[in-house]
What we know:
The chain starts with a helix and ends in an 11-residue tail after the last helix. With about 160 residues, the protein is mainly α. It is built from 5 helices and no strands. The protein has one domain.
Amino acid sequence: MISVIAALLLWCLPALAQSEPGGDVRGRGREHVETVIIGKFATELNLSPEQAEKFFPRFRQFQEQTEGLQRQQVERRAQLDMLAADPQANTEQVSGLISAQSQYEQQVSGLKRAFLSDVSEYLTPQQVSRCSILLDELPRRVHQFMEERSRGHGKDPHPRRGR
């Protein structure tokens, strides 16, 4: 177990080193989300120390590859929202965004297949299967986690303190 934690810390160090001292809240929030994701994958996949050493660098690479695509997808969704409320929107604009969304989904699917193929060299079939499920659930879980954090943000975590 200590080896897995050490491997996780080694995997996290580059992300922690990139953050500036006293960095912005978004950076710390992102690091916290990454830590939660790492913990979830480590726990759910029951990785051995050797597997963790191989898995997390490859997982980080996968995340970096899909991050830009995800940002573009969020922008397209916002554009579609604006077009849905715009009486002047035309079919070409909507069709173009829907086509771009489809291309995004194909790219992400290809990256996911490549990632799962890579990790299948050192994970069991059961772990690969569970990893695939976790990858599918990841955007929803991250979104849910962020909503929960934002709802609690700004509230005193110790409401009785000072009374």
